[in-house]
Design goal:
The complex is a heterodimer of chains A (about 200) and B (about 130). By secondary structure, chain A is mostly helical. Chain A contains nine helices and no strands. With about 130 residues, chain B is an all-alpha fold. The chains are: A mainly alpha (about 200), B mainly alpha (about 130).
């Protein structure tokens, strides 16, 4: 099938084509999903790019393997990918904790936007790094819920499916996670360039 | 309250800022992912081929012995035709056979044969 015709095909159709040996189906699926899977994994793993790449590769490998057995209509491919990513990242975080190693918070943003002055860019980068660090201090499930809701843009029912819990539990986790983030960031207001009495949204 | 709302809005804005920072996959990662895909595709193809071959061998082993009793190709076709003709003759009224019998033996043949004559009484009585 021509690549142009394939490019508008739904994910499930591409999986069927992949299972039937179409060489372009994998390229299109990877093009659609790899970047988001990598970004999500990097956020859950406190910005560790190398480990996030390992996870992203493993997630995609699992997608290729399940393709011949994929049951249409049972789950969305994107939701399935996030679910597998969540589980693999949780496993790695647990494994690190058992080994007693910690994660470094890496720079998670590249704000070389021409609209920002160098000083503003540095402040913005500091804020984003602080936010990433604050996210990393949340309990695993709270971090996953906040990231899925406010960064990846999923609705609560989808998050419930990804995290295998009720919608009410997702709402509770998200609310607690945001309260905790606010508390953590509040302790760093001065370091992040906020004056006393400023709201974050004055920026 | 305003401060809480303000902080919430600011936090939402900061989180949304992170959403725009999804890193581009490196060429190396994309290459590894596509290499995995090609390897899995090759495995799936080999497995399907093997399964089909095994199915054919099983089917051949199951029916091959009986099949060989009747011979091959043309012999089987002839056998099939004869079977179909037999079934048709069993169902259809063989009028040409009746007229031929009358011509040869000069006797009337029954138009039909009543195999269960007693049933008419039961049917009439309801």
């Amino acid at each position: 099938m021509a690549l142009d015709a394939l490019s508008t095909a739904p994910d499930e159709a591409l999986l069927v084509l992949f299972a039937n040996g179409d060489p372009d189906a994998a390229r299109l699926l990877a093009g659609r999903h790899l970047r988001r899977v990598l970004g999500y994994a990097q956020r859950l793993l406190a910005g560790d790019r190398t480990e996030a790449e390992d996870v992203a590769q493993e997630v995609m490998l699992r997608l290729w393997r399940i393709a011949p057995d994929w049951r249409p209509g049972e789950a969305q491919v994107s939701t399935w990918l996030y679910r597998v990513t969540t589980n693999l990242c949780s496993d790695r975080i647990r494994s690190r904790r058992r080994r007693g190693t910690t994660l470094d918070v890496h720079e998670m943003t590249d704000l070389s936007d021409d609209r920002l002055s160098a000083a503003q860019a540095m402040i913005e980068a500091d804020r984003m790094t602080a936010l990433a660090g604050a996210l990393d201090r949340l309990p695993d499930r709270q971090r996953q819920a906040v990231v899925l809701r406010h960064i990846e843009g999923f609705g609560n029912p989808e998050i419930a499916h990804i995290m295998d819990m009720s919608v009410e539990a997702v709402e509770s986790l998200t609310a607690r996670g945001k309260r905790a983030l606010t508390a953590i960031l509040a302790g760093q207001r001065k370091a992040l360039g906020y004056e006393e009495g400023d709201d974050y949204d004055r920026y | 309250m305003t401060d809480i709302d303000g902080n919430n809005a600011a936090l939402d804005k900061m989180l949304a800022g992170l959403a725009q920072d999804d890193p581009m996959p490196s060429d190396g990662l994309m290459g590894r992912v596509l290499a995995d895909a090609a390897a899995v595709q090759a495995t799936v193809s080999v497995q399907r081929h093997s399964v089909r071959a095994i199915d054919r061998r099983k089917a051949s082993a199951r029916w091959g012995g009986w099949s060989d009793l009747f011979g091959h190709g043309p012999a089987k076709a002839g056998l099939g035709t004869a079977a179909i003709a037999g079934v048709l003759l069993g169902f259809l009224q063989p009028t040409p056979v009746a007229s031929m019998a009358a011509a040869v033996w000069s006797t009337e043949t029954a138009g039909s044969v009543d195999l269960l004559p007693g049933i008419d009484d039961f049917m009439a009585e309801g």
